[in-house]
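Changelog excerpt

This revision adds worked examples to the README so contributors can see how folded entries look when concatenated. The first example is reproduced verbatim below.
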Amino acid sequence: MAAVNRNDLIAKVQKVARKHFQPTKSPGDRSVFETLIFGCCLENATNELAEEAFARLQENYYDWNEVRVTTVPELAESMVGYVDPQASAARVKRSLHAIFETHYAFDLEPLRKENLGKAIQRLKAYKGVTDFVASYVAQTALGGHVIPLDEAMLKLFAILDLAGPKDIAASTVPGLERAVPKAKGSEFFGTVHQLAVQWFAAQNSTKTWAIIAEIDPEARTRHNQATKAAAEAAAKAEEVRQRKVEEAKAAKIKHAVPKGTGAGKAEPPKGAVKPSADKGGSSKPADKSPPPKPPVAPPAPAAAKKPEVKKPEPKGASKPPAKPAGKPIAKKGPSDASSNKPKPKKPTTSGGKSGGPKSGSKPAPRPASNSKNLTKRKPK
């Protein structure tokens, strides 16, 4: 918007607001600190509601320190008729806490002696003190030419196409202080703020829109279009967010499947040298392991170790006596030869051919151990 049109439109805003609303006057006996607390109550609220809330805080609590230590829900009970009483109560509590933690007292009178710019910076440095509250203190208590802008006023100027998204984010309206003379700054704020709060509390009120139409007949159409575009953008953003969530879930599932199954199957081909477990539990080399077996030929020296064991020696000493040990048990059969059975041939073989082809020359002493059998055979 051109500078000339902007100045004319701002002047028209002041004229229409002055027509429908009466200027407000704050008590001149309030301190800087009390003005700050009243500004916390006035943000996004009418002057009447702010006066009532400020009076309740003074009546219901012993002092401001008691207000400071009171919970936000309890303080919100004093904000009757507010659009967002919790937010107003939280501003009061945070501001009191920040001031007390800084000065250990509720006194801000030294700000009157400082430069306006530095005083505003100090006010904004307190946690809980918004730009609107700092500007209200600067205009009302410090005598500066500043137009306080809360959320209600910023949205009204946006509807009138006097502020863009970036201006609203920065809590400023370009050229506002230049278009409004200092002498009329307090009146401009008092009347326009009432219009802004009335629209903020009931955005579909035909009465309020009729007042705004006196300033700009196309304001409501422009506002409806902007609201629709914002709703569509929010819906698209929500769809994109849900899509990303679904994609993230699908990606987790895909990564989880190979971890349980595919990873185990893919390992054998990569490490063919590694042994694979058979059904019997014994580990065998993979199919591609025969090539590496030739280098395993070193076990050949194990064959050379076989002669070192000297297996023939134990065969002649320990194993043969074990075998004939079973044969004399069979010879006990001939002891029963007295029963006139056709087995008497065995004793003849045992006397003359005791060794047989299977036994060596050593079985000869064994009949000596069975002396009883020999004595029985002599009478025959």
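The second example, added in the same revision:
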Amino acid sequence: LKIGLARFVEPALQNQMTRLSGQLDQEIQKRLNLREYIQQAWLKLQQPVQIDKTYNAWLTVIPHDIRISPLQAANGQLNLRIGFNSFIQTVTNGKPTVKINPTLPKLITDKRLTDNVQIGLVGEVPFTHATQLLKEQVTGKTYHAEGGKQQITVNDVAISSSGDKLVVMLDINGKVKTGLFTKKIIGKVFLKAIPYYDAATTSIRIRNLDYDLQTKDQLLRTASWLVKGKFIQNLEQQVNFPVKAQLDQARTLLQKSLDQATFADQSILLKGNIRSFTPDNIYLTPTSIITMLNAQGNLSVQILKL
């Protein structure tokens, strides 16, 4: 007489193994001070890593939270995967200054850790450079409207930011003719616009140009005329800050560094590959325009020495 007990016994054994595995995992974590080791990894990960010396390119990681896999035993060793939800970016203008966050967040157990990654490639246009490019386009030029009744000459320009808007200052002089009277105008007109990344030209451009409240009352009429006239259309077309060279350089360096295992320093090993690149967003700082490009792929970071 043969009685198949496997289908009755196996579920019970499986439940027992799951329960014992969970208890063992908890007990090991109590006895091993995992937070001490993860704290060291947390701090080391935030240090900028040079990925290319020729172009002085650096990769920075800003971790936000930590996910850990359950402990696994194999060949007499305990294995633990640690995942950091992070903001990652590359820059090619020297070692960036970072503010280290020493506070280790709560550890979250996650059985579905992956090595998928999005890395932000940065293209930066300092306002000083943007101003110089625009000066070459408009400084010294005279613009007319209404058959010559309105006339202004641009003496100087300057680009800055206000919140999420780009501010274009025009130092102008000119004249406005009304009837028999001609009024001279002189002063500064402030225009604001929304910057955006133009994928077709790989450059930063502007749209929705309008006058800003900083413009003095006596110049508002002129500012309104500028906004409504062809001058604004021409200005929007002329504001074109190329970032193709920076982004191509960052993309090439990143691809080269991660397609093969790369030792970032004596204790950090980067391994990965990049599958695609997509435009992300434009950010304004007090000193520059930043464009971000997202690189999607896989990345693992092995910290060999703690």
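Reviewer comment on example two: The longest strand covers residues 181-198. The first helix runs from residue 6 to 31.
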